[in-house]
UniProtKB/TrEMBL annotation, chain A:
Subcellular location: Cell membrane
Membrane topology, as annotated: Multi-pass membrane protein
Species this protein is from: Brevibacillus centrosporus
Entry keyword annotation includes Membrane: yes
Keywords: Cell membrane, Membrane, Transmembrane, Transmembrane helix
Protein name as it appears in the record: Amino acid/amide ABC transporter membrane protein 2, HAAT family
Molecular function in Gene Ontology: branched-chain amino acid transmembrane transporter activity
CDD domains, sorted: TM_PBP1_LivM_like
Domain of life: Bacteria
Transmembrane segments: 34-67, 79-102, 108-125, 156-175, 205-224, 244-267, 279-305
Pfam family, one: BPD_transp_2
GO cellular component entries: plasma membrane
TrEMBL record, chain B:
Cited SMART domains: AAA (SM00382)
InterPro entries linked: AAA+_ATPase (IPR003593), ABC_AA/LPS_Transport (IPR051120), ABC_transporter-like_ATP-bd (IPR003439), ABC_transporter-like_CS (IPR017871), P-loop_NTPase (IPR027417)
Protein name per the record: Amino acid/amide ABC transporter ATP-binding protein 1, HAAT family
Classification via PANTHER family: CONSERVED COMPONENT OF ABC TRANSPORTER FOR NATURAL AMINO ACIDS-RELATED
Gene Ontology MF terms in the entry: ATP binding; ATP hydrolysis activity
């Protein structure tokens, strides 16, 4: 049932590809930002929803990726090299830091990732001579995939659309792979996984590193998008916002975090033109969704879809579970 | 020769000594049952043997290799797997997914991430075989928390068997089962091939005597007596401490 909307990814891809034809220049820019944020929030959603690792420092990897493009970009201009370097360096930093704190879980993991993120933030903030400190720095590298510089908003939009679709597809494959299933099993029941012979630390470390890598990749795209980076990109407040986007969108899915990112980026761009109480409004929405829609926007959308869609699809809705009269049903808790 | 050896194992929790100088030998192919009153330390012994809990003194040797001191996940690699006294499953996943995880645990492709798990024919075949063999084929797509208690208990055993262990540790496999389920499970245990060496903790005396080649009585964390079923059932002191004077066969 859940898959109905998404069973037609071609429709979704077609919409993404055609969107620039109907959107204004600003709309194209906003959608590009949504897609970049969606990649980042999906990377966080991966460790939260599938590995049970709730991080409050994930922006550090996003910011790191962005700074790699900004800093290395002053020396070289090859887009491929810069983006890959951003992803790899973020991945390595995630791996090394993960080695140290992947043992902890729950609130401890949250605190230690928060501390680590703030530490990286402080480094970029303090190293004024290199990073420009609080003022941030401009991104001088130009975007060029070998077919000439991509300067138009629409050209950039198509680039991030492809990046988003590929990231989403790879994440889909990942969560259905043996490794991804193992990660999910660890979230469900660590002691059983250990008893089955899984080294759960290896799994957590791998998924954490991959997630950091993807966050760095999103950060690199953001550096090209914004053409300016600042330490705010690593700040825990940004990590917290991404965390809220995951929870509001729907934990435990890939689509959820992407929806959460879209919801907040678009809402923010409208609301912040009227008021600067944006963080408070975000908080209120967060509380409301956590209280009343436990599965996040995704679940609410599914409920509405099931209510509102045309009647002729009605038959599909009935569950396909066989009716078995063997007496076991009554036992279930 | 002994496939599994526990030598002078001691374990305490913050000053409370739960196991004291426990030694135990299990031969290849043997079906060894551990009995003893609640709180005797039986489950703790399993936890220490598999590395789930660190031990204070002594060692555990599997197939000539020392296993104590190694992390818990290595037990399965050395051919020893276990079940839990309290069901310890993936409650939110389906029966099939539970078994997939168990089957994949020691496979070389367990770290693969570029291909869906559903494309691994060997894993699917092994899962199917286990489902069919243990009568859960019909219920393969059920979410585990929706299964009956007895079925969940059975799945405990299936998960442990999925790694094709040489040594299987069962912690009260029939606890909480209905009499019919107990009989069925006993028969399933009896039908296991002798290539699987069994060490079973069990309370139900009918079950104990229908599967045991050898019985060890654990009492206050110490091995009180170890012997053949006849020796144990004939021992007056065992009756005294464990059964409070009742008869062994019908406890
Ligand atoms: N993790 C633990 N921490 C403290 N005490 C424990 C722990 N596990 C078991 N015990 C204690 O050890 C004793 C033996 O428990 P257990 O091995 O479960 O006995 P049995 O399985 O024979 O019924 C009990 O007194 C129990 O309270
Ligand atoms: Mg016990």
């Amino acid at each position: 049932m859940r898959a109905n909307i998404w069973r037609t990814p071609t429709l979704f891809i077609a919409i993404l590809l055609l969107l620039p034809l109907i959107l204004t220049n600003y709309g194209v820019k906003l959608t590009s930002e949504v897609l970049i944020m969606a990649i980042f929030v999906m990377s966080l959603g991966l460790i939260i929803g599938f590995a049970g690792l709730v991080s409050l420092g994930h922006a550090a990897f996003f910011g790191l990726g962005a700074y790699v493009v900004a800093l290395l970009g002053t020396h070289l201009d090859n887009t491929y090299v810069l983006i890959i370097a951003a992803a790899v360096i973020s991945g390595i930093v995630a791996f090394v830091s993960g080695l140290l704190f992947i043992r902890s879980s729950g609130a401890y993991f949250l605190m230690i990732t928060l501390a680590f993120g703030q530490m990286l933030f402080a480094i970029f903030y303090k190293m004024e001579s290199v990073t420009g400190g609080a003022d941030g720095m401009a991104v001088s590298a130009s975007l060029n995939l070998g077919f000439g510089a991509i300067e138009s908003r629409v050209g950039f939009y198509y680039l991030v659309t492809i990046a988003f679709l590929v990231s989403y597809y790879l994440l889909r494959v990942f969560i259905s792979s043996p490794l991804g299933k193992g990660v999910r099993g660890i979230k469900e029941n660590e002691s059983r996984m250990t008893a089955l012979g899984y080294n759960i630390r290896h799994y957590k470390l791998i998924v954490y590193s991959l997630s950091g890598m993807l966050a760095g990749f999103a950060g690199a795209l953001y550096a090209y998008f914004n053409q300016y980076v600042s330490p705010d990109l690593l700040h825990w407040m940004f990590s917290g916002q991404a965390l809220i986007m995951v929870i509001v969108g729907g934990v435990g899915t890939l689509v959820g975090p992407a929806i959460g990112a879209g919801f907040f980026v678009i809402l923010q761009s409208y609301i912040s033109s009227y008021t600067d109480r944006w963080p408070m409004i975000m908080g209120v929405i967060f509380v409301a969704i956590v209280l009343y829609g436990r599965g996040g926007i995704l679940q609410i959308a599914m409920l509405l879809w099931n209510k509102l869609r045309p009647k002729r699809h009605k038959e599909e809705e009935t569950p396909i579970l066989p009716k078995e009269g063997n007496g076991f049903e009554s036992v279930k808790g | 020769m002994s496939l599994l050896k526990v030598e002078h194992l001691s374990k305490s929790f913050k000053g409370l000594q739960v196991l004291r100088d426990v030694s135990l030998e299990v031969r290849e192919g043997e079906r060894h049952v551990i009995i003893g009153p609640n709180g005797a330390g039986k489950t703790t012994l399993f936890n220490c043997m598999t590395g789930t809990l660190p031990i204070n003194e002594g060692k555990v040797v599997v197939n000539g290799q020392q296993i104590s001191g190694l992390p818990a996940y290595t037990a399965v690699r050395m051919g020893m797997s276990r079940t839990f006294q309290k069901n310890n499953l993936f409650g939110e996943l389906s029966v099939e997914e539970n078994i997939h995880l168990a089957v994949t645990a020691c496979k070389p492709y367990r770290f693969h991430f570029l291909k869906p798990a559903s494309k691994y024919a060997e894993m699917l075949a092994e899962t199917q075989e286990l489902l069919a063999q243990w009568g859960l084929w019909e219920r393969r797509s059920r979410i585990v928390s929706e299964l009956s208690y007895g079925e969940q208990r059975l799945l405990e055993v299936i998960l442990a068997l999925a790694s094709k262990p040489n040594i299987l540790l069962l912690d009260e496999p029939t606890s909480g089962m209905s009499p019919a389920e107990t009989v069925q499970t006993t028969m399933l245990i009896q039908s296991m091939p002798r290539s699987i060496t069994l060490l079973v903790i069990e309370h139900d005396m009918e079950v104990v005597f229908s599967i045991a080649d050898r019985i060890t009585v654990l009492h206050h964390g110490e091995v009180f007596l170890s012997g053949s079923p006849d020796e144990i059932s004939g021992d007056a002191r065992v009756k005294e401490i464990y059964f409070g004077g009742g008869t062994l066969k019908h406890a």
